[in-house]
Write a structure and sequence with these properties.
The chain contains 16 helices and two strands. With 341 residues, it is an all-alpha fold. Strands 1-2 form a two-stranded antiparallel sheet.
């Protein structure tokens, strides 16, 4: 398993503590659901240290802040807010996709039911917005707070637009790879881009953060394409999801979109027929995997991932950051290209 770059460990505990403080010790069971999803307790309320995810977006926010202004602690409230918004989206995604597992544990909705899981996810989103008010404790000017609120919520709205498009693709057979890239720019890249922008805007004027926006966009696209590769060819022990899980869920991820576009008519019609069924059985999973191999869908996706990774790497030279942090940007980018979890 590829190890997380050291920069992830540098801020992890402080971000985690900030999120715990935001969710607070409220004894309403609703908050236990949030704490369970975040990996702080088990389903019975017993404390533990369960899988909490990579903290990618929060870490990028912290990196953008410390690399432009040194004092990183003022970014903790917004880094925590970004991580909470990401997790709100995961709670709702699991409901929409009927995924019964998240980070090697039962998904929130699977234990508490979909109605209450929707409440929990929405509560997490509201808490994220309220967390921005904590910037007052660091004497952040109100104009900056408004800018951050705007970036955070515009990023969240774009993410929801992307989720809408992603779901709408399930009923379409003419989705092109270009359509798909437009979708993931919203669904995945927007929050990664927003996280980096927020960290930078804490120290820089708005007109100086454009390179961060470009870098975040490219990085987010590369991240999602790698996710699509892992969603079909990833190792279950490392990803926490069954082999070919995206196929079983009938997701029109990039490998499948590419295959539908590039395959001969006979294969294309068979793929459309299989994806039109309510359930894809194991025999058809293997058939789809063979079709993907025939058109070299994995090679196409790996090339696309590397293409956006290279664009992101090239943009790093334009970031107005302290020289000592350049390597951290490169290491995060490289990790996202080759990760296996």
């Amino acid at each position: 398993m590829e190890e997380l770059p050291e920069i992830f460990n540098r801020f992890r505990e402080e971000i985690d503590n900030e999120m715990k403080s935001i969710i607070s010790e409220n004894d309403l069971p609703l908050y236990d659901m949030l704490r369970y999803h975040m990996g702080w307790i088990d389903e019975k309320g017993n404390p533990g240290d369960f899988n909490k995810g990579k903290f990618l977006r929060a870490t990028l926010c912290m990196l953008a802040c410390i690399s432009t202004g040194k004092d990183y602690k003022k970014a903790l409230p917004v880094a925590a807010a970004i991580e909470l918004i990401h997790n709100f989206s995961l709670i709702h995604d699991d409901i929409q996709d009927n995924d019964i597992q998240r980070r090697h544990r039962p998904a929130l909705w699977y234990l508490w039911g979909k109605p209450q899981a929707i409440n929990a996810g929405t509560a997490m989103k509201v808490l994220a917005n309220l967390a921005i008010l904590r910037l007052q404790n660091y004497k952040i000017p109100y104009i900056k707070q408004i800018e951050i609120f705007k970036i955070l919520n515009e990023s969240c709205l774009k993410m929801l637009e992307g989720q809408y498009l992603d779901i709408s693709f399930e009923d379409k057979s003419d989705v092109s790879p270009d359509d798909y890239i437009i979708m993931i720019e919203r669904k995945t890249a927007s929050l990664i881009e927003g996280a980096i922008l927020i960290g930078a805007v804490l120290n820089l004027d708005f007109d100086k953060i454009i390179p961060f926006k470009i870098f975040g966009n490219y990085l987010g696209i590369a991240f999602q394409i790698r996710d699509d590769i892992l969603g079909i060819w990833g190792n279950e022990d490392k990803t926490g999801k069954p082999h070919a899980s995206d196929i079983r869920k009938k997701k029109k991820s990039l490998p499948v979109v590419f295959a539908l576009k590039q395959s001969p008519d006979k294969i294309k019609k068979d793929l459309q027929k299989i994806y039109a069924r309510k359930i894809i059985n194991e025999k058809n999973v293997e058939k789809i995997l063979n079709y993907l191999e025939t058109v070299k869908a994995k090679d196409f996706c790996e090339d696309k991932c590397k293409y956006y990774y290279n664009l992101a790497i090239n943009e790093i030279k334009n970031l107005p950051v302290f020289e000592e942090y350049i390597d951290s940007y490169k290491k995060i980018s490289k990790f996202l290209l080759i990760r296996n979890f």
